[in-house]
Amino acid sequence: MFAALTPALALGGAAERIRILPAVLFCFVWTTIVYDPVAYWSWAPNGWMNVMGSLDYAGGTPVHIASGFGALAFSLVLGKRQGFGSEKFAPHNYLNIILGTSLLWFGWFGFNGGSAVASNGRAGLAATVTHIAACMGGLSWSFIAYFRHGKKFSSFHFCSGAIAGLVAITPASGFVRPWAALVFGLVAGVACHFAVDFKEKFGFDDALDVFAVHGIGGLVGNLLTGLFASKEVAALNGTIIMGGWVDQHWKQLGFQLAASCAGASWSFVLTGLILIIFNFIPGLHLRIHEEGEISGTDMAEMGEHGYKFATMEPLPVGRERTLSAVESGQPPHGA
């Protein structure tokens, strides 16, 4: 399931401008070449990260760092969406955002708690810290956004922060105490919030902020694991570790940093190479044609509109957005 989820995250960096059939093949190739080796390094008895002493309970490096830096490479190689930088791309359905976050939040209890592969105290604690980190991540992101965006609270900001907290606690969920989860959520909410600004500053079009939330969130989680991993928590199911800084094991932070850098570099470089090779193979270029991108990939690739009431009529002259309702993904004015 982790192997199925991770390439789907990486694809988020290229949302709204990618062809479906090549994307399916890309998922298989990317999982085999990028995800599988990193997963082996992290969790196999002979994996070099595992042998070195890196701690990763549920996928900080193989899932989140790999997908985040893969999405960064994806967005750079494919290029920007039509109108990026001149048009405003806003969320088109906040109810879907809330619903999706709720489903992810619930599923993450299986993602982290299920990594114990047993019903025991360590699994219960992993689920507990997962919930705490998500709550704190949502709060910290929301409060920063409140002061940066007109002193208004937003469900979108809370949902983004909650996901950042879930990402950060993933590698540490079976290693840390509940109080430490507060730190994970707080730091992840702040770090990932400001990481979103890099998209605007450096001009790359990561449509779903996968790099900011998963890449940076995974990096934050890995490093904080080096600080707060507790050998007593791991011992709840008989696992023996040296712990992190809370157990005076100072080298652990270095192990976490080495694993993070290796996973990020492997994913970024190989994702870029895979995409370049795909573009040279007839029929496998991933970027959709310009007309299809403007009309919307739902219609161009699936033959159906996401919103039946949307029309192709242009918006009134003088409005901030000049794209049609279908092109922008927004309902028509007054709908």
Produce a short descriptive summary:
With 335 residues, the chain is mostly helical. Helix content is 64%, strand content 0%.
Description:
- The structure is a single chain.
- The protein is mostly helical and 335 residues long.
- The chain has helices spanning 2-11, 20-43, 48-52, 60-78, 94-113, 121-148, 155-169, 178-202, 210-228, 231-234, 252-280, 290-295, 297-302, 325-328.
- The longest helix has 29 residues, at 252-280.
- The protein starts with a helix and ends in a 7-residue tail after the last helix.
- The relative contact order is 0.16.
- Mean pLDDT is 89; it is low at 319-335.
Largest sheet: none
Q: Roughly what fraction of the amino acids lie in strands? A: under 5%
Q: In oligomeric terms, what are we looking at?
A: single chain
Residues in helices, as a percent range: 55-70%
Give keywords.
335 residues, mainly alpha, 14 helices, 0% strand, globular, disordered C terminus
Task: Give the secondary structure arrangement, pairings included.
Blueprint: H1 2-11, H2 20-43, H3 48-52, H4 60-78, H5 94-113, H6 121-148, H7 155-169, H8 178-202, H9 210-228, H10 231-234, H11 252-280, H12 290-295, H13 297-302, H14 325-328
Helix pairs in contact: 1-2, 1-4, 2-4, 2-11, 4-9, 4-11, 5-6, 5-7, 6-7, 6-8, 7-8, 7-9, 8-9, 9-11
